[in-house]
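Class prep. Write one:
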Amino acid sequence: MLSNLKDILGRAQAGGYAVPAFDCVEDLMVRTILETCEALRCPAILMGLPGPDLEGKGWFYVPGLIRAVADRHSIPVALHLDHADRLEDIKRALDAGYTSVMFDGSRLPLADNVRLTRAAVELAHPHGISVEAELGHVGGSDVENSRQSESVLTEPEEAQRFTRETGVDALAVSIGTAHGLYRQLPRLNIGRLKEIRAATDVPLVLHGGSGTPVEQIQEAVRHGVTKLNIYADNRVAMCQGLKEAAQAQTRPDPLPRDLFAAVRLRLAESVAGKIRLLFAENRV
């Protein structure tokens, strides 16, 4: 059933767990993620990423598919726009039926980030759509693996001002994670996270969750993180499944169920692992 981010994360915050959020494209990912979340009784947050993942008709195919099947599942399902840095994309998401959006002004000066994020909130809230924003900057590689950027940690005092002046429903913070695959393992700044948690009661989000050591992720959840974004780990799992499927085929025209079986299996294993990592099993 369709839900929004505010409702899902509010329950997670009260229950002391976090919800994995999965960037996804294509029906194989949507179905596998939703069925795995439902089997483990975990809320589902499915995300579309502006740019290559939603280019062309993707703006209609991806959210259209998720909206069509969400009510066939007995768990809350949020349809979330990830990392939009233009208000035009926020407006497109509202028209396409997203139930929550992220405006990412993390590269901007604080005053501009506040102004534009508040504008996104003013667009979304009248429609019952929740808004996530980012303060500080989570670096790493972009989705094309063509550009690297450095992380800038979130300042607790700025987090307090930002959430008060923008009215956001969730805040993505930078405490040491990075997007993409790590070149070396991170060391999360849990002390900084505690200071941010003390400065604002808005649900906190951690981006760059793929590859971060288990014990660090769980410590972050214990200190206020309620949503963890996952993409790279699922891509790695699907690639492994593709290799296994290619090696297993004995006919030149394999049936789709056989061709995709290993991909679904490895993806489901990855999703289930994240659900259990975040203490999110049996929360529905």
